Amino acid sequence: MNDLLFELPLPEFFDFGVCLEYLNRSPLECLYRTDQEGVTRYFNLDNQPLLIRLTAPGGSRMHVTLLHGDIPGPGAAEWLARYIREWFDLDRDLVPFYQLAQADPLLAPLAEQHRGLRIVGIPDLFEALCWAILGQQVNLAFAYRLKQQLTAAYGGSLEWEGHVYYAFPGPEVFADVQPEELCALQLTRSKARTVLDVADLIASGGLSRESLLALPSPDAAEQRLLQIRGIGPWTSQYVRMRCLDDTTAFPVGDVGLQNAVKFLTGMDRKPTPAELLKLAEPWRGWEAYATFYLWRALY
């Protein structure tokens, strides 16, 4: 089955190939499979398994093709289209960012080299929070390993043409899970408690992406997240950046950001948060995109 479900128009300054390079940065990624032409991902919509492939054969429109499953109804198709737009930040006008980057000595080479790269988001709040929690104070490879183990143990899966595709577990799956079960997957006890607390909050309706976006400002959303035990400034800034569409998010405590600036500026040490804030003054309003492009200097 290769049914074209719909097409999405692609904005100016979008390069699917450059975004695929970002998606392909780790062989441990378990939630999608990439190749030179596109990305394949498993979704479970209304208890219906769907295997979706995204390509952009002409460069101006993204093709959303159904590889396996029943053709989704209008509501599910609308949800899927919105998810893909948010996943690749397709509704963002990047002209102001590129104008800013062109005038910045640090960003200009990166913006030229990776032109068309969009912040690849994590539209699902539970997944975004879990990914940030798993990534606290560990290297990226180990964070991927934790996500892989958590997804394999609790997420849905679909086998198709010799490959197993996974969907990240929903928060309701963890209702009766004990911290010890997550510790057996190599999560620390602190991370296990935080994942279960977040799962309970979201499953009970006490926290949602919609409620965070409805708050008066991104800072107010961050303050709400900081009320959760185990979530600090780095985690909340990361979620603002990858899930809440906040281009002003600036995770100054991020080791990758610090290492990128150290590498690109030739510093003999990592910059302090105060130095990063000073450096970012010309990036006002686009700090998250600056961070995303600086990360690209690391791989």
Automatic annotation (TrEMBL):
Keyword Hydrolase: yes
Residues in the signal sequence: none
Keywords in alphabetical order: DNA damage, DNA repair, Hydrolase
Alphabetical list of Pfam families matching this protein: HhH-GPD (PF00730), OGG_N (PF07934)
Residues annotated as domain DNA-3-methyladenine glycosylase AlkA N-terminal: 5-124
Domain of life of the organism encoding this protein: Bacteria
Domain HhH-GPD: 134-299
Top-level EC class: hydrolase
Name the record gives this protein: DNA-3-methyladenine glycosylase II
Species of provenance: Paenibacillus jilunlii
